[in-house]
Structures are given as C-alpha cells and as structure tokens.
Amino acid sequence: xxxxxxxxxxxxxxxxxxxxxxxxxxxxxxxxxxxxxxxxxxxxxxxxxxxxxxxxxxxxxxxxxxxxxxxxxxxxxxxxxxxxxxxxxxxxxxxxxxxxxxxxxxxxxxxxxxxxxxxxxxxxxxxxxxxxxxxxxxxxxxxxxxxxxxxxxxxxxxxxxxx
Length: 163
What we know:
This protein has about 160 residues and is mainly alpha-helical. It folds into two domains: about 1-95, no CATH class; about 95-163, no CATH class. The chain is about 70% helix and about 0% strand. It has helices spanning about 25-35, 40-65, 75-95, 100-105, 110-120, 125-135, 140-160, and strands spanning about 5-10, 10. The chain has a two-stranded antiparallel sheet. Strand 1 and strand 2 form a beta hairpin. Helix 2 (about 40-65) packs antiparallel against helix 3, helix 4 runs antiparallel to helix 5 and helix 5 (about 110-120) runs antiparallel to helix 6 (about 125-135). The chain is globular and about 60 Å long. Pfam families: polyprenyl_synt (PF00348). Pathway: Pheromone biosynthesis.
C-alpha cells in the first residue's frame, strides 16, 4: 500500500480486493484485537513499523532518482532493506503474534476459534497455556518451521543464482 504496488510476490495485493481497500490493516486490527488489553500496543507497533517502512521507501525512491551514486553505499542499502523488510516482514508479525494467531484462526474449528478469541493476547498464564494448547493441536509451530525452511531454501537458491 505504501508504494502503491499492485502485486506482491506475483500475486494481487490483498488491499486491492474490493471489500478491503485502504482499510486493510485497520480492518485486521479492529476485527481481531480491538477488545484486547494489548490493542494499543499493537496499534503503536503497526504505526512505528509503517513509519519505518515509509521512510525506507522514501530513501529507496531518492536513490533511484539520484544521478550521483557516490553517497549510496552498502550501508545505505542495508539500512533501506532493514527498514523496508525486517520490521514489517519479521518484527511486527512476531512481536504481535499476528501471523501465528491469524493462521490458527484460519485453521481452527469453531470451538477452537472461540477459545482463541477469548484467550489470545491475555497476560493471565492460564489463558496463555490455553492458547499454546490450541496452537499445538493445530501444529502451528510445525507450520511455521516448514515456512521458514522453504523461505531459507528459496533465499539460498536466489543467492546461488546471483553472479
């Protein structure tokens, strides 16, 4: 959304769906977290990540339009990559556990879904254990282990193809 892209990894961006639009992030936050005690913390993390990503997008565009590349070095590039990808792609989802709970909600049966909605994001240790139990039943950790393994393999293949 920040760079007005229409595709991500070869697929139409989610925010371009007619029923979603520019409210994509707010929709998810409101739908799954608005009644949670950590709602404000999650909203602040999203805002912080959005600011970092937009800053990196601006730096990226600045570099692309520049005729003088003497001031753009590997450190500049690494900072742009870090800001554009690591916060949005790794920090935010893991810090907020958005990825895990969304995957769990997608795979849960109605009873598990209700239990997750009642207990996720709570500080009470009993509720944390309930969520962990549902995650174990749904094999969420195994799912993410497979995703990370496949991602690592794809990155390694890309690096190996680089001249």
